[in-house]
Amino acid sequence: MVWGNLAADEGTITGNIGRSTKNRQIYTVYPEGDSGKPAVTHYRVLEKLGYVNLVECVLETGRTHQIRVHMKHIGHPLFNDDVYGGDKILKGTTFAKYKQFVDNCFSMIPGQALHAKILGFVHPVTKEEMLFDSELPENFAQLVDKWRNYISNRDLDQNI
């Protein structure tokens, strides 16, 4: 789940990823060839939930923090990502009721709203293709439902 509505419902993010020169604990996108290693992330918006979007990412490369870094790079940090700036209200209204809603959402998940649905690799010894599929954790699914309810109630209020 990322903050804001993406410019396109699907796209590709490219950019070298490497450690930040200002903070060695985080990563950043560098202009191609300057530093870091090439990274490619394909994304598709699954659902628009007002001030956040549920997004599917498919990676061509496997860089450290790749999804988090690429999404921040295009201005859409992951919801509740305290390392890359998604742990603050970045989109929405200034109403106290909304702030309380978002704070409640933050408390529902222990970190950034990121889940690996499918992971795959070739086993280094047996050379067998390994594929793992995992359903959305319950707290993440509840978070998505909470945003759905918020948006549907907001839309009803605006139609009155």
In short:
It is built from three helices and eight strands. With 160 residues, it is an alpha+beta fold.
Describe, in plain words, how this protein is organized in 3D:
The strands form three sheets. A four-stranded antiparallel beta sheet has the order 1-6-5-2. With 160 residues, the protein is of the alpha+beta class. The longest helix is centred in the C-terminal third of the chain and has 21 residues, at 138-158. The chain has a single domain, classed as Pseudouridine synthase, CATH 3.30.2350.10. A hairpin with a 2-residue loop joins strand 5 (40-49) and strand 6. It has three helices and eight strands, in the order E-E-E-E-E-E-H-H-E-E-H. The two termini are 29 Å apart.
Helix-strand pattern = EEEEEEHHEEH
Low-confidence stretches are: none
CA-to-CA gap between the ends?
Answer: 29 Å
Q: Gyration radius, to the nearest Å?
A: 17 Å
Percent helix:
25-40%
Architecture per CATH nomenclature, i.e. the level-2 architecture: 2-Layer Sandwich
